[in-house]
Amino acid sequence: MSYQNLRDEDEALFRPIYETDRSFYAVVIALTAIFLFGLGCYIHQLIYGLGATGMDEPVSWAFYIVDFVFFIGISHAGTLISAILRLSKAEWRRPITRMAEVITGIVLAIGGLHPIIDLGRPDRILHLFERGRLQSPLLWDLTSVTAYFTASTIYLYVPMIPDIALLRDRGGKLKNLYRILAWGYKGTPKQKHALERAINILMVMVIPIAISVHTIIAWIFGMTLQPGWHSTIFGPYFVVGAIYSGIAALVIVMLAFRKIYHFEDYLKEIHFQYLGTLLLVVALLWTYFTFNEYLTTFYGHEPAEMRVFLYKFTGGYAPFFWAMVFCNFLLPVVILSNKKLKKIPGILIASIGVVIGMWLERLIIIIPTLANPRLPYPTGMYIPSITEIGIAGAATSAFLLGFMGFSKLFPLISIWETKEGREHSVHEVSMRLREYLPGQLDKSGVEASVKAEL
Amino acid sequence: MKDRTVYIIQLITLSFNWLLAISVTWWFVHLVVVSNQVKDTQTASLWISILAITVFWILAGVLSYVFFSLHRREKEPA
User: What is the pLDDT of residue A102?
Assistant: First the structure.
């Protein structure tokens, strides 16, 4: 592959960096306004304490922890999905991986701040550094989220180096920034080999780290004896939920930026069809886990567990519970299992439904258990305050602003991977296919026959 | 910007990763010492520390490997 040729082809992928229209600024202004409102809400909370929120006894974890679990779940979109697709040599991954990895980096930074917001007094986080107990899942969580953030940032950065080198060579206002970030990359065979090696190590490392992050978050709940939380399947259940919401968020982001930057030639319907199939498989897996979780609770009929169960099914949180069932099961399964509906609009509707449904699922897991504790307290009720809603709005707008900011600095679709796919994939996949088939030659024989045909 | 300046800035950014790995190591050692002082269970602390420290050191190592591999001058063909 000629390194210099990369500049001329795929010009459309550079365009978002150099061309900005008015609507972009309008969206940035609107999102900044929402963000500033949320920041104001947080300052209000800092002054008046957690009394400014809707939290009270017995519901002492609410919106912030729901958003924390939700955002960390979304982060599985990126690194995990990208690493699995890379590892399995799925060729259709090429235009997807970068966006997925960016989602991870941004939402992890935002989600990771939520427990500090939930503390009310952020200075108390210092106690964790000074006198934290390593036996506590809360400390495992801090460690795994930090490790995941570090790993996914490196995993985003390393495959981006060849594209940064292209930006450096094009010059412009930010040339010096790109010079610093390109690390002297010139596309020599040795440099390519070093990058490939590092990417291989990182993708193998990132998968267990990502799984451990959401498993540990599940343990924060599962290791207590609270009804509705004390469950052995919470770890895998949370991981499946995280991958589920991650894929849905990835589809929404890909469709939005496909429309805004006219990436129709790169993000084709087939990519969304494949992601739709993946979403359907995970939807069924999530349903299976949910069914397991609630059936065992109902069958055991333990009084404290049943109070939480009935609170979800017929009590104060029933509308949210059934909305979750609709968004996470009925809607995606009906759309994605029907060939006629499994087109881009249908996949978008299913994905939006899943993102809403997964947020509701986090709400359903956290609030009803706290509202109906094992100890004989009266049932509580939680209604979020404007402060919490404002901060949730700020977190969402920070995510969108972060993504838009990234699109103005770096290509959202990996240029070198696209080029590599175009030049080598057909040959490579053809080779691989022939090796799988019975009665075929060995690797060298297959290579010789493919070369002869070409 | 001079090449030398660019290289120094790159080295500083790389060193942040090592700083993180060293800080995490120092923090975990501190927590193990504290748990020892208060006669808390040691097994879990040690295993978690070993695991976490290894992850951060490998990540810093991989990044350094990329950095120095990209900066290594290739021999000119004779």
Answer: 93
Q: Name the band, by pLDDT with cuts 50, 70 and 90, for residue B16.
A: very high
Q: Domain for residue A425, yes or no?
A: no
Q: Shortest CB distance from B31 goes to which of A132, A158, A202?
A: A132
From chain A, pick out residues whose CB is under 8 angstroms from the CB of B31.
132-134, 139
Nearest residue in chain B measured CA to CA from A185: B70
CA-atom Rg of chain B in angstroms: 19
CB B12: neighbour CB atoms within 10 A? 10
Decide if pLDDT at A7 tops 60: no
pLDDT for position A2: 45
Taking a C-beta distance cutoff of 8 angstroms, is the pair A182, A165 a contact? yes
Chain B residues interacting with chain A (CB cutoff of 8 angstroms): 1, 6, 9-10, 13, 17, 20, 24, 27-28, 31-32, 34-35, 40-41, 44-45, 48-49, 52, 55-56, 58-59, 62-63, 65-67, 69-72, 74
Write the ipTM.
0.91
Read off the tokens for A46.
């800092």
Q: Is residue A436 part of a domain?
A: no
A147 to B65: CB separation less than 8 angstroms, yes or no: no
Sketch the domain layout of chain B as residue ranges: 3-71
Compare CB distances from B59 to A129, A134, A150 and report the shortest one's residue. A150
Asked if residue A63 belongs to a domain, the reply is yes
| Residues of the domain holding A343 | 13-143+213-413
Which residue, A142, A53, A70, A60, is CA-closest to A391? A53
Q: How many domains does chain A have?
A: 1
Q: Is the pLDDT of residue A401 over 50?
A: yes
pLDDT band at A394; cut points 50, 70, 90: very high
Q: What's this model's pTM, rounded to 2 decimal places? A: 0.90
Name the residue in chain A with its Cα closest to that of B35.
Answer: A133
